[in-house]
Amino acid sequence: MTTRQKALAAVHTAAAAGALTVAALPIGLDAIALRAEEVAAVIAVGSFYGAKLTKSTASGLMASGFAQMVGEKVALAALEASHATGFGAYAIKAGIATTLIEAVGRCAADYFEEAAAA
Q: Does the predicted TM-score (pTM) go above 0.90?
């Protein structure tokens, strides 16, 4: 198994955990939990590439991209909108969380691969 495959397996695990957590929490807490899961995914990915990241450093990496900020705004709006759908909100919130954590994790893997190649 390659380093990338190992890193992405960790991302999949974080995404699954994040989906369950975010789906179960009310608005406000769900966004905080989503951010925590994203940070944990970045730290996990970095560890496969030999980077020892703090929560602050991982958050900084995530915040450095405009797309991340836009994505979070869209996600928060979608999370809020999902509450209007009743029971289906749990599935919607889980899907949003999974997608965002996977995207963040894949971006982190790309970042660390590029850094390692430089």
A: no
